Description:
The protein is mainly beta. The chain has helices spanning about 120-130, 175; strands at about 10, 15, 35, 45-50, 65, 75, 90, 95-100, 110-115, 140-145, 160, 165, 185-195, 200, 205, 205-210, 210-215, 215-220, 240-245, 250, 255-260, 285-300, 310-315, 315-320, 325, 340, 350-360.
Amino acid sequence: GDGCGHTLLTPPRGTLSSKNYPGTYPNHTAPPRQLRAPPGTSLLLAFGDVPPQPSESCAHSSLLLADPQAPPPYGPFCPPPVPTTPLLVTNSSAVTVLPPRTSHRSGRGLLLSYATSQHPAGVQGAFRRERALTPPLATCFSVYCPAGCKDIDGDIWGNPSQGYRDTSVLCKPPLHAGVIADELGGQVTLAREKGITLYESAFANGLHSKRGSLSEKRLIFHKACHLPLPACGDVLEVAAFNASSPPLEVDALGQDRAWVAERAAPPTTGHSWAAEPGSDSAWLELDLGARRNVTGIITKGSSEQYDYYVTSYRVSSSRDGKNWRPYRGSSGQEDKVFEGNADSYGEVSNAFIPPFVARYIR
C-alpha cells in the first residue's frame, strides 16, 4: 500500500483501503488508484466503507469509479448508502478509483474489494476477510504492515502496557510496542477492546506516543489473542553487575560518591552507575546468572537531581562471558545503535527483534 495500510492489489482479486483504515484518513491525501484485470475479463467490486462527504448533495466530494475506455464514470457513491446492489459489475478490465480529496473532521475512509469475472467468488471472500478488520469488542484481527511505517505521518496514543487508541495510525502501534521491526514489517495480530480513561505517553523503539483521553476502543497486543509474539514478559533478575571505570566524585561533605556498577540496579534512588568522563569505550555488564531469552531492554537516567542519562548505546551479548557478539538486529549488517533517553527521569523501551539467548549483556 501507499500508506502502511492493508491494500493488496493483484490481477485476479484484491482489496483497496485508504490511508490509516479503519482509522480516520488524512485530508487531501487520497490519490487515484487503478485496478487492472486480465484483458477480456470484467471487474466486480464490493464496497465495505465509503468516505464521508461534508456536502449534502455529495456532488463534489464523493467516490467515483472511472472506466478509462468507456466514460461516463460509475457513481458518485456516497455514505451512508453504498451501491444498491451487493456487487457492482463493470464492463471493463480496468477501473480508476477516484476517492474524494476534500476536508473532513473524521471518517473511516475507503474499503473496496474486487475480483474478476473469471473468479467471481473472490470479491465476496476478500470482502469478508477485510470486514474482519472491524470486529466486535475483545476479538482479534490481523493486518499486514509493510516495512518503513515509522516515518509516515500520523500520531499514536498509548503504550505497550495500556494499549493504544484505535484512532492511532494503524501500523505504528506494533512498532512502538516492539512487535515488529520497522526495517522488516510483518503480519500483526491484535485485539480490539473497550477503551480506557487515559492513555499515558511513552517513548519506545524510536517512537513517541501521545498522552490522550478516553476513546471508545483500544488496540492491544497480548495473550488474549493467543499469539506467539516476542512480548516482554517477566523482568529478568540480574545476579551481578560489572562496568568499566566509574567516575570519582566528592560530595559537598567531602565524602566519595560512588557511581559503581551496582548502582545500576533499579529502582535505585539518587545517583546511578555512570561512566568515567571522557571515556569512549565505557560499558555496563549484566550477569543474568544463567542463559535467558532476552526480548528487550528498558533504560532510565540517574535522577532529576543529577541529570545523568545515556542518549544512545549498542548491545553485546555472551553465553560464557568470554566470547561476545554485537547485536545487529534484523538487518544483520551493522551493529544496531539504540535510541536512548532524552532526560534523566523517563523510561525508554527498546525491543530486540529478533530476541537472543545469553547470560551476559553489555
